[in-house]
Specification:
The protein is α+β, with helices and mostly antiparallel strands. The chain has 22 helices and 17 strands.
């Protein structure tokens, strides 16, 4: 497809057309850049995915078209200047491996300005948050270690980005690197203009106070990065992470089963200080606090090939000594893992395991695993866990498998759940070809267990992880570096949903809650919400009526109510559940008696009321419910019984929940 760039047309033409069939406009910019589809639109113009037909490989690129939505001569002139300045800034930055490269800037025959730059394939962090849930401490440290060197570089060039936010950070699919995009709001920061008031640009939730007054400085970018960090940790709008009454950040109150160390917490707190002098003054200062060493990258304008980033490769911790009882050399595996070359490391792991067991041409047998040398197993597992920050490794997989009730004997339900959790099964189908070799993969996705399907696979996993524990391998301890590995035998701490001993799926009415549990484990929130309504109606003998009365709730079996609530709270990591909603309601001063002000405030707080637009202050419909972890705290299960919801909270108190 070839998209017409005429804003009044946008007709879709065939891929080989030179002119638009509808309006006659030329389709190739500068006889080489062809727009394929619209991928973004903002105040300054439109952004298109395109191809460069001048090159034999026809690589993707990005076309930015100046097409402002603002009106008025002065406003249009300012917008045109900012668009041109983006091209000038990108050009001045030269080639940096984590900033899109500028290919061209020109005014076409139609009189419009265009900017052509490198296309970055991948998801931005806002999309990643929506898909995978809140970030943990390791991912936030990775974010800081990737973005701070970029800021250090652009600040050394007297450029302030002014629009750091999750949407402007893309995780590049090819190498998992974070790329900083959209320099449309950036400005030069010369000594002469640092004290002058300029244009207020940026995204309100992430803008530093001084930037809001038109006086952005380098520390303004650091503030926005800090706010980005606390948002990704909580999934809560930065506006709601700040207490306006007390004039202080309260982001820690929104952490749910997502611990943050004092070390990282203090760094984030200093990044988001209101006074610029109280903040870190440079990106390198933050990196020093994080104990991350970097080198400022100097672009080479004469080099035509892509330049590799200067990165700080993690060193092997003292407790990983690459030991082998079979004389195996693990240095290649370590190098591959250091460089995050996950696919090559996975293949090297398979080769090494076969070498250790002398099964180079065959599958592993039970006796091979039972006799696997502890030194070798410990070395392989510790390397994987350490260089993935606890995300990959045999011990990680073993912990997941055991937490869902996996045993040595084959159980189809457990095996399917395990496959779904680690990303080996999609849409109820096992797909060993579609492996995600990046840190965006699910927990435990690697190394890939290539030792057979179904029962054979579970058998191998169980015995392999059992062997790890027998060998007293605790790779999680390698990350913390606090005590010798040999003294620890507990498995790594990972955030895998599990049914704790207190959730026994009890029911005073003989209700089967296994389907609800499975849906919540898989984070199928909408289906789980509907199943919750179904089982509650069953417990109250109101299936035909499809509605609960006040007396039904007052007599609702405590065992059933407790089971439903515990399942929701556990598998949402404390974000959803009746008890979560009840706490919010009671914290607002709510009682069983109806109070319009409190009830409306409760609806606003958990996202059941419309906050903006012509429908403002009205209660949402079921079609408007947000069925994912980005929803506000307490958003699910959804309110279905109107004022009887307060009776439900009272019933929970009666049941001592």
């Amino acid at each position: 497809m070839s998209l017409c760039l005429n804003p009044d047309c946008s007709h879709k033409n065939t891929p080989t057309d030179k002119f638009c069939h509808k309006c006659g406009s030329q389709l190739l910019l500068r006889e080489r850049y062809r727009a394929l589809k619209l991928i973004g639109q903002g105040g300054f113009g439109k952004t298109f995915q395109a191809i460069d037909e001048d090159k034999p490989s026809k690589p993707y690129c990005v076309i930015k078209q100046f097409f402002p939505s603002a009106q008025g001569t002065g406003t249009l002139q300012k917008a045109a200047e900012l668009f041109k300045e983006e091209a000038i800034r990108l050009d001045s930055l030269g080639r940096y491996p984590q900033i899109p490269e500028l290919y061209a800037y020109f005014t076409s025959n139609d009189g419009r300005q265009y900017l052509v730059q490198e296309y970055i394939e991948g998801q931005n962090l806002e999309q990643e948050l929506k898909q995978e849930g809140v970030f943990n401490e390791a991912k936030i440290k990775h974010l800081l270690s990737e973005i701070l060197p970029i800021l250090e570089f652009i600040h050394s060039k007297q450029v302030i980005h002014r629009d750091i936010k999750p949407e402007n950070i893309i995780r590049r699919k090819s190498d998992n690197k974070l790329i900083l995009v959209d320099f449309g709001a950036a400005k030069f920061a010369s000594p002469l203009n640092r004290s002058m008031t300029g244009t207020i640009i940026g995204s309100a939730e992430y803008v530093a106070p001084e930037q809001g007054n038109g006086k952005a400085v380098n520390a303004s970018d650091l503030y926005s990065l800090g706010v980005t960090g606390i948002y990704l940790l909580t999934g809560i709008s930065p506006f709601d992470l700040f207490d306006g009454g007390e004039h202080q950040w309260v982001w820690r109150q929104w952490l749910v089963n997502n611990p943050v160390s004092n070390e990282l917490g203090n760094i984030l707190d200093k990044l988001i200080e209101f006074g610029t002098k109280k903040r870190y003054q440079s990106a390198s200062e933050v990196l020093s606090a994080l104990q991350i060493k970097t080198s400022v990258f100097i672009p080479q304008t004469t080099i035509q090939k892509p330049v590799n980033p200067v990165i700080s490769v993690p060193q092997t911790p003292p407790s990983i000594q690459l030991k082998s009882a079979k004389g195996i050399d693990y240095r290649k595996l370590e190098d591959l893992l250091k460089r995050q070359q996950w696919k090559e490391a996975d293949e090297e792991t398979a080769n090494l395991v076969r070498k250790v067991t002398n099964r180079v041409k065959d599958w592993l047998r039970d006796e091979d695993i039972q006799k696997f040398p502890c030194e070798d197993l410990r070395t392989i597992d510790q390397l994987w866990v350490y260089y993935s920050n606890g995300k990959f490794g045999f011990s990680v997989q073993g912990q997941i498998y055991r937490e869902i009730g996996g045993m040595e004997e084959y159980n189809e339900r457990n095996w399917d759940i395990f496959g779904s959790l680690v990303g080996w099964q999609k849409n109820n189908s096992w797909n060993w070809q579609d492996i995600n070799y990046s840190l965006q993969a699910p927990q435990g996705h690697l190394p890939l267990i290539r030792y057979g399907y179904k029962g054979e696979g579970s058998y191998i996993i169980y015995h392999l992880t059992s062997r790890i524990f027998v060998c007293q391998t605790s790779s999680h301890q390698i990350i913390n570096q606090k005590q010798p590995v040999a003294t620890i035998i507990q498995p790594p701490v990972i955030s895998v949903p599990q049914t704790p001993p207190s959730i026994q799926l009890k029911s005073a009415k003989g209700i089967d809650y296994r389907n609800l549990e499975d849906l919540l484990k898989r984070q199928q929130w909408k289906e789980a919400d509907q199943e919750t309504a179904t089982v509650m109606l069953q417990a109250a003998n109101r299936t035909k009526q499809r509605w609960l009365r006040e007396e039904d709730i007052d007599n609702f079996p405590c065992e059933n109510l407790r089971t439903i609530d515990q399942l929701w709270v556990k598998y949402s990591n404390g974000k959803f559940g009746f008890s979560v909603q009840a706490k919010i309601y009671h914290d607002l001063g709510g009682t069983r008696e109806y109070d319009d002000k409190i009830w409306n405030a409760f609806g606003d707080k958990i996202g059941w009321r419309v906050r903006v637009g012509f429908m403002k202050n009205s209660w949402i419909y079921y079609k408007d419910v947000t069925f994912d972890l980005k929803a506000p705290q307490g958003h699910l299960p959804f309110e279905k019984w109107k004022n009887n919801w307060r009776s439900l909270f009272s019933r929970m108190e009666t049941c001592k929940m």
